[in-house]
Structure formats: structure tokens, C-alpha cells
Amino acid sequence: MLESQLDEINKTTQDSLESTRKMISKTTEMAEIGINTLVDLHSQGNQLQSIIGDTENIDENLDQSGWILKRMSFFGMIKNMFRSQPKRKRSLNKGTRKTTNIKELEIEIRNKKQKQKLKEKEKEKEKKKENEKFKSRSKNDKQSVYGNVDRSILTTEICNNLDEQEENINQISDLLKDLREISILQGEEIDRQAQDLDTINEKIDTSLNKIDLNNRKIDKILY
């Protein structure tokens, strides 16, 4: 009777342990995907910053062109005598967003994955040693090792599985915290890019208006 119950408990703990191992694998994979997505988003953000810098240069070139076109007409030349030539602003730094958080998080996730593999190998060695120690302990000793829970009737394999399962749950908790941090960083980057896109659209509209104005000036000069 006791043996059949122990077999059932052993099967249950084995299934639970396997589930936690799969969860670690899946959450680690999700974290790596999140990191790669964050890196791609960051690269995209740098490209948007570069585009903003280009639109700034276009806008300044149009201002220069407008000022020169004014000089080509008599009244415009008189007006420009009292106005200084548009000065170029300092060009924007292209692609200079900080990547510290991304790189640190990426390294941390990869290190955790490597540590997990090392832990699994070490546990196999430790299990053999624990089995010998466990067999030599008295019933009271076994109870003290596991706190208030009386596991003295359980097999060594079941106890080891329960211990590993607890460690796995703690690791899953840490990985979920990493996933939360990754998602927050992704959200912040997407918000920044939305603002960048609005800025680009505004600058394009401004440039189009200046192009239209310069075309009118050219028409007046030619005709």
C-alpha cells in the first residue's frame, strides 16, 4: 500500500518537475525573443533619429534657398540688406540613444541560461552524495532537514525532485521579472518612436510649405 502511494507521489513530482523545467525553457526563450525585439526596436529608433537629422538639414537648405531667391529680386534684395543670412543649426546627433539597459539585460539573460545548465550538471553529482547522506540519517534528522513537513517516509528521489522544483519556481519568478522589465523598455521605446514619427511628419509638412513658397519665388523671378 505504502509503495503504491509512493510510486504515485513520485510520478506526480516527476510530472511537476518536468513542467517547471519546460516553463524555464519557455520563459528563457521568450526573454531572448524580447531582447532581440528590443535591440531591433532600438536600431529602428536610431534610424528615425537619423531621419530627423536629415529633415533638419533639408529644412535649413530650404531656408538658405529662400534667402538667396529673395536676393534675386529687387525688393527682396533690399529686404535682405536688413536681414542676416539664415545660420545653420547644430546638426542632431544621429543614433546616440543609450543601449546600456539593453546590453546589460541581454547579458544577464544569457548568463542565467548558462548558469542553469551548470546547475543541472552539479545537481546530478550532488544527488548521489545526498542519497548516501539521506540513507544514513535517522527519522528525526530527516524531519529537521525539511522543517515541519515530515518527509521521512518519502524516497530520496521524491525529496530531491521537490527541492529542485522549488528552485525552478524561484528561477521562473526571476525570469518573469526580466520579461516585465523587457516589456517596459519596449513600451518606452515605442512611445519615443511615436513621438519621432510625429516630429518627422511635422518637419515634412514644414519643408513642403517652404518648397511651395520657393517655387512661387522662382515663378516671380522667371515671369
UniProtKB/TrEMBL annotation:
Domain of life: Eukaryota
Gene Ontology CC annotations of this record: plasma membrane
Region annotation Disordered: where it falls in the sequence: 85-143
Ranges where the T-SNARE coiled-coil homology domain occurs: 10-72, 159-221
Basic and acidic residues bias (residue ranges): 101-142
Cross-referenced Pfam families: V-SNARE_C (PF12352)
Comp. bias regions, Basic residues: 85-97
InterPro entries for the chain: T_SNARE_dom
Stored PANTHER family: SYNAPTOSOMAL ASSOCIATED PROTEIN, SYNAPTOSOMAL-ASSOCIATED PROTEIN 29
Similarity field: Belongs to the SNAP-25 family.
Protein name, per record: Synaptosomal associated protein
Organism listed in the record: Anaeramoeba flamelloides
Taxon lineage: Eukaryota, Metamonada, Anaeramoebidae, Anaeramoeba
